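Q: What would this chain look like folded?
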Amino acid sequence: MKRIAILTSGGDAPGMNAAIRSAAKFAFYHGIEVFGVRRGYKGMIDNDIFKMTSSDVSGIIDRGGTMLLSARLPEFKDPEVRKIAADNLKDHEIEGLIVIGGDGSFHGADLLYKEHGIRVIGIPGTIDNDIIGTDFTIGYDTTLNIIIEAMVRLRDTATSHERTYLVEVMGRDAGDFSEGVGSAYEIGKELKKIVDTELRITVLGHIQRGGSPSAFDRVLATKMGARAVKELMSEESGMMICSESNKITTKFIDYAWNGIVDDTQKRKDIELAHILTK
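A: My prediction, written as structure tokens:
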């Protein structure tokens, strides 16, 4: 393994920079050249690929977002578009690719491997924590703490003014934030008909994604980044890095959408939450 590339795709998540830093530094240590792909798969088809140095990843572990930038590319579903991307990687003599992102990003990586033989390793980076096979995704812990802090602040002002606040958080439908219920404004219209109190609505939105990653996310990202390079060095491919019971493991990347969801612990947590709110 002489050359690898790293990209971030989909929604940004706190800790992506820490994963980029770890993967790059681990590769440099082992004499591997590292290339960055700007703006995810869009940058891959645009050939926006550059050679990285240690200075590119210096001082980024505490930065939110992603220094490689990110973009969504629905056109990547087209096999001809994927061929352009694969050819660009091969033109740079890149032997392995690390994809940091969520479910959609993993689908793209899996197809590059199966259709064009590009050796890929996926690192789960998404605030939603909705990747099957890993207990935690990079960015989830930071985002959860941002939500908690916002709720504490809102509770203070709600109590002071004797108001009721309806808060909409951003995410998909994994349930870890209790997201995916619906629009706060639409639900608020119905609540106002039955709740005899002043009702205010707050939508947290993209504020959940920004900011410096938590210590947990920095450590998780660092471990996952190094493990991804290690897997490529051992000629593994089509795998994703997982965190299970505080241990870094691997699974086939398609486990992210074909795997079995074990929600036993989640159901126990919900049951406990119901007890504590009575």
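Residues 140-161 form the longest helix (22 residues).
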